[in-house]
Every structure is written in structure tokens, then in C-alpha cells.
Amino acid sequence: MTARHSRISDMHTSPPKIIKDSLWLYARMGILLVLNLWTTRLLIEYMGVDGYGIWSLILSIVLVWSVLGDIIGDTIVRYVSVALARGRDRKRLDSIFRVFTRLYLGADLVMVVLASTVGYWWLTSYADISVSDKAAVTQTFFIVIAMLMIKALNVPFLSYLVAQEKFRKYVILSLAEGVGTFITALLLPLFPDSEALIGYGWMLVIAESAILVTYISSCRKDICTPASYKLDRQDRQLMRESIKYIAWIIIGASAVMVWIHGLNIAVNRIYGIEATAACAIAMGILVRLRGFCANAQRAVQPRLMKLYSAGRKPELTSLLRNYLAASILIISLICVPLCIFAPELLEMWLGIVPPTTVQLTRVVILSAWVIIFEIPLNAIIHASGNIKKFEIAEGSVLLLIIPVFCLTALSGGADLVTSFASQLAVIAIALAIRAVIAGRHIKRMTAHRQ
After folding, report:
1. pTM of the shown model
2. Of the candidates 312, 434, 260, the residue with the CA atom closest to the CA atom of residue 12
3. What is the C-alpha to C-alpha distance for residues 434 and 249, in angstroms, rounded to an integer?
4. From CA 282, how far away is CA 266, in angstroms rounded?
5. What number of CA atoms fall less than 13 Å from residue 278's CA on the CB side?
6. Per-residue pLDDT tens for 333-382?
7. Number of neighbouring beta carbons within 10 Å of residue 67
């Protein structure tokens, strides 16, 4: 075994490093949370409640189609983590980056095509938007597509850094992106009200382009990919294998995207644009809670995958148990005060609080105790590579959220809050499925043989 091979195969993180990495990630999420909340307040202040509702609706329609890119980003973490745990050489890691970069470019093009056709058709035909706003909304829609296409290209670089557990650089780069987005919101007063949507979209395009250049220049040394991007036989074999793996993940990830972004669309159709703004704020908090949990747990995600792939069952179960206990305590310390003081905090944050926002916010806060189990349990399931039954079962359950919401709203004549709360029962069932399947994988795991 070469010295380089030995270094790669021994990349197991010590507990002090996990704690240090977790602190970096918690600091990152704290700063980003403040920036995101402040950005939302600025958008509502400068665009108005209806303007913010339209902006959120546009993002939801486009982001629904970006699910494939998110899947590939998570898959990079899985393949690199498993390769490191099994002592694979530098060539294998370079092959992973070459293959997944190509897959990501393909996913980016799929997002553009679907958003520009199906998404545009829905926006112009069914969205609850006044006729006077439609011209600006249409222009903003295509600008947002361009912005997200550029933003998506950052993900392979960040995913590779996560898998290699280089969290300090990951934190610095992602904070730079958050600051760039915040600065664009500060510049909104430079545009008249009629051009706020379009101007904000173009500023984000410029900011994301600058951030992408920064990512590429900063990550090249960590990735160490050769200048030649031509695929060899090993690359083509990996691409076939990874496409099969990705195909199953699409089911579960698509269901999550439909849940988060499709709910805004369903609320818009049933309850109108004012309710859309309230839903967008609540779902925005849900996204931030999911992001907080997922990013805070990124320090343990590659570690769990490596322990599973190396067959180190006692260490795996101990780390999983301790980390989940700590996560429950931390999320409780955050969410209990948020739930109790939601009216005051929302008024302090937004200034103008759309009707029912407080009630919807309390519903999504309750879901936080379910969210914290996702990343650790998913890491074990995905490390096994045996994900077919899990993705089908979980995806099928999560896809019920929108139909259950619509049935509650339409057949029962329920108000927005009651219909919105129906999602809690569905995500609890999905958690039970995830826990059962992860438990089976841990029970059956055997030591990996080099």
C-alpha cells in the first residue's frame, strides 16, 4: 500500500475533530439563519407582501425541477465517503469527480428545459397573479432559471469538500454565498417598485456568477482533478453504476421537493396570493430548520458512511445514538422558545406579518423533531447502497402530503391552518419507515474486507 493510499484509507475522523467540525457548522448556520431572516424582511419591506408571495411562487415553480441536481450532490458525498473508507486510491476519487460533474451538468440542463416548458405553462395558465404583474413575473421567471442554473454548479464542489471532511473551507465558501445574497437584498431600494422583481433577479445572477468562479478557483487543489476530463473505461462503468443509484434516489428526493415547493403552489390555487405569502414564510422557516439540522449534522454524515462501509458496527451505533441524543437536546432548546414566542419573533422579524403566519409557523416548528433523524439515518441507508425499497416506501408516503392537504381543504372545507397541519401525520409515518429500514441495515452489516 502506497503512502498516499494509506493516508486516504485512514481518513477516519476523531471525536475531537467531529466536535470541532460541528461547531464550525453550527456557527455557519447561525450566521446564515440571521442573514436569511434579515433578507426575507428586506424583501417583504421593499416588494410588499404580494411581491414577496410572487417571488416565492416563482422560486417554488423553478426549484421543483432542481431536485435531480440535489440528488447528485448527495450522491457525490456517498461515493467519496465509501471510497475513502475502503482505501480507494486518488484515481478513483478523480474518476468520481469527473463522472459526477458531467451528471450534474446534465441535471442542470434538465432543470432548465422542464422549468422553461412545464413550469412556464403552469405559471402563465394557473397561477393567481394579476394581469398587470404578468409581464414582470414572466421576465423574472426566466432570470431566476438562469440564476439557479449558475447556483447549481456550485454543488459538486461543496459536496466533494463535505465528503473529504474539509468543513472549514466549506463553511467559509458557503458563508460567502450567503453574504452575497444578502447584499443583493440591501440594494433593492435602487430599483423602482415596478422593477423590484426583475432587478433583484439580475443582481442574484451577477452574485451567483462571482461565487461560482470563487468556488472553482478555491476547490481545484482539494479535488486535484487532472486537466483531461475525458472518460476512461473505469469512468464509464462508474457512470452506469451511479445512474442506477441516482434513479432510485429520485423517488424520495422528488417527494421532498414536491412537499416543500408544491405546497406553496397548492396554497396559491386554493387560498389565494395572501395565503401564499404566509405559507412561503412558514415553509421558508421549515427549509431553514431542515437546513440547520442537515448542515449541523454534515460533520457526522460522512463519518457514519465510512464506519458503515468499514464494518465498524460498535462505533457506528455509539456515534449514532450519542449524536441523535445531542441533536434532540439542541433542537429542543431552539424550537421550544420559537414556538412559544412565535408572534413576537415574527413581528420583530417581518414587521408586516401576513394572516395565519404564526399558526403555520408553529406547525412547521413541530416537524423539527422529525427532521433531525433524517440525515443520520439516511447516511446509513445510502452507505449500504441498497436503497430501492427505502426510496419507494418513503417517497410514496411523502407524495401523499399534497393530496392529503388538498382533500382536507376541499372535501372537508377546512381552514388553511388545519389543512397545512395534515402534513405532520404523513412525515411521522415516513420517519417510522426510515428508522425501521436503517435498523435492519445496521443489524445485517458485516465487516468490510479490504
Report:
1. 0.68
2. 312
3. 14
4. 14
5. 20
6. 888 998 899 899 888 877 778 888 899 999 888 888 887 888 788 888 88
7. 22
